[in-house]
Amino acid sequence: MTTNGNNTTASTNTSADTQGDAGTLAHLRESASHAYESTRESAATAAARASEGIEANPLAVLAGGIALGAILGALLPKSESEQKVLGPLGKRLSETAAAAATAAREAGKEQLTSAIPDKDAAKESLKKAFGNVVEAAKDGGKTAATGSSAA
């Protein structure tokens, strides 16, 4: 009979353990379900905010994306095949950019030089303008003298 008593006690303990495991499992499932719902709601809220931000400032988002892409591109190491394929292209782009910068600088110098008159031309313009002022003053004086004597 002792054996039966021990079996009954062991059977009762196993039944209690199974019920405890089932309760723990149910609790874990409930926690996981709650975490899933919470994460899903947070993701939906974040997506809505991102959509509103993109609609409000599309150029800022574009600029940010370009900047992020440039940063990531600069941080990632170049592979050997990329260096083989893109190396000559990079050199050509650098040379073209340097030539364009030089051409722009020269064109700017030419524009400034043509906008600023040279010394002799400036003197001639001033003489001409001064001569016109003197002639206008003479004509004004003659008109005043003629007008005052006629009155």
UniProtKB/TrEMBL annotation:
Q: Where is the composition biased (Basic and acidic residues)?
A: 27-40
| Spans annotated as Disordered | 1-50, 101-120
- Which residues lie in Low complexity bias regions? 1-18, 41-50
Top-level taxon: Bacteria
What this protein is called in its record is DUF883 family protein
